[in-house]
Write a structure and sequence with these properties.
It is built from two helices and no strands. The protein is mainly alpha-helical and about 100 residues long. The relative contact order is 0.10.
Amino acid sequence: MVRESQTKQMKSLASMEEKEVAEVMKWVYNWRKDEHRRLSKQTRDKNELDRMKREVNAVLVNKGVVEREKKERLYKDIKYHLEGAQAAVLKKLEEEKRRVIVICF
């Protein structure tokens, strides 16, 4: 039962991480789209517009990578602490089992 709970917690954590990564990707996509619209209004020269769009894309790729790395580090840290807490619970459970066995015999 304890192991099932721990597995559910880890799955829930992975699910939360996937959702946040998807949110970051959606934000990057929407920001890029808005920037391209804004740039289209700014200039009519096709070559200049294409250059500006490439620059925006490069900046967004970097921002997206940085944000994903932040999320990844955050969730690794959370996972590390969760695994430690789960190990402590298992250790206490084993100690309690041993104590009960000693008392019964």
